[in-house]
TrEMBL record:
Assigned protein family: Belongs to the VAMP-associated protein (VAP) (TC 9.B.17) family.
Domain of life: Eukaryota
Residue stretches in coiled coil: 167-204
Compositionally biased spans, kind Polar residues: 134-144
Source species taxonomy: Eukaryota, Metazoa, Ecdysozoa, Arthropoda, Hexapoda
Keyword Oxidoreductase: no
Name of the protein in question: Vesicle-associated membrane protein-associated protein A isoform X4
GO biological process, one term: endoplasmic reticulum-plasma membrane tethering
Membrane topology reported for the UniProt record: Single-pass type IV membrane protein
C-alpha cells in the first residue's frame, strides 16, 4: 500500500462537542482540509465507522495538482453511546487518477486495493468543560478521589463560630420542643379535670332525677286508701243533702 499523497489537517484526530447527557452539540461542525501537493490528479473519499451519525460534505471528489479542499463534518442530533465512543473513526481514502480516465465511479470500481492510499483519524469528544470522553476512565477515578477528599477538606475549612452557632440552634430547638411537651401535658391535665367535672355533674343529675321520682310516689295516695275513702265521701254528701231538705221543711 503506497503512502498517503495528500496532506491532511488535522493530522491525527477530529474533535466534536457533546453535552453532559451525551447529545451532540447542534450547529457545531468540524472541518478537515485536504491538500494535494503532488503533480498528479488525486481522487479522494471520506469514510467513517458511523455513517448514520455524521454528515460529510463533500464526501468524495477530485483534487488537481497543488489544490486543496475543505471537508465539513457535522454530527447528527443524536446521542453518543459511551460504548461506541472509541469506535468512531474517519478514513481518508485516495488514489492517483489514471491518465485519460474521466469516469470517476468506474475508476473506484476497477482500482486494485494495492493502489489505494488510506489515512485514519480518531474522534475525540469534548463536553462543555472540555473534558475528553476518551479519557473518561481516568477522569472518573480522579473525580472519585476528589469526592472522597472533599468532606474532610470542607470540614477543616468550617469556622468554629459556625459550629457554635449550629449547637446553639440545636439547644434552642430542644428548648422549644420541651416547652411544647409541657404545654401538651398541661392541656391533657385540664382535659382530664374537665372530664371528671362532667362525670360528677352527670352523676348529680341522675341523683336528682331519682329523688324526684321517689318524692312523687310518696305524696301520691295508695289505690286501696282511695277506695276506702269513696264511701265516706258519698255518705257525707248524702247527709249534707238531707240536712238541706229537712231545713227547708222546718222553715
Amino acid at each position: 500500500m503506497p503512502n498517503q499523497v495528500l496532506t491532511i489537517d488535522p493530522q491525527n484526530e477530529l474533535k466534536f462537542k457533546v453535552d453532559f447527557s451525551g447529545l451532540f452539540e447542534q450547529g457545531f461542525t468540524t472541518h478537515m482540509r485536504l491538500t494535494n501537493p503532488s503533480s498528479d490528479t488525486v481522487l479522494f473519499k471520506i469514510k467513517t465507522t458511523a455513517p448514520k451519525k455524521y454528515c460529510v460534505r463533500p464526501n468524495s471528489g477530485v483534487l488537481e495538482p497543488n489544490s486543496k479542499v475543505d471537508i465539513a463534518i457535522t454530527p447528527q442530533p443524536v446521542y453518543l453511546d459511551p460504548n461506541e465512543k472509541h469506535k468512531h473513526k474517519f478514513m481518508v481514502q485516495s488514489v492517483i487518477a489514471p491518465e485519460g480516465r474521466t469516469n470517476i465511479d468506474q475508476v473506484w470500481k476497477e482500482i486494485s486495493p494495492d493502489q489505494l492510499m488510506d489515512y485514519k483519524l480518531k474522534c475525540v469528544f469534548e463536553t462543555p468543560r472540555v473534558s475528553n470522553l476518551n479519557d473518561s476512565g481516568d477522569n472518573a477515578a480522579q473525580n472519585e478521589v476528589t469526592k472522597k477528599r472533599a468532606p474532610a477538606t470542607e470540614d477543616s475549612k468550617v469556622p468554629k463560630t459556625f459550629t457554635v452557632f449550629k449547637h446553639d440552634n440545636l439547644e434552642n430547638d430542644l428548648q422549644k420542643a420541651t416547652s411544647e411537651v409541657l404545654l401538651l401535658r398541661e392541656e391533657e391535665s385540664k382535659l382530664r379535670h374537665e372530664n371528671l367535672q362532667l362525670k360528677e355533674e352527670l352523676l348529680r343529675l341522675h341523683q336528682k332525677v331519682g329523688e324526684g321520682r321517689v318524692r312523687r310516689h310518696s305524696y301520691t295516695p295508695d289505690k286501696n286508701a282511695q277506695a276506702t275513702m269513696i264511701p265516706w265521701i258519698a255518705i257525707a254528701i248524702g247527709m249534707a243533702f238531707l240536712g238541706i231538705v229537712i231545713g227547708k221543711f222546718l222553715m
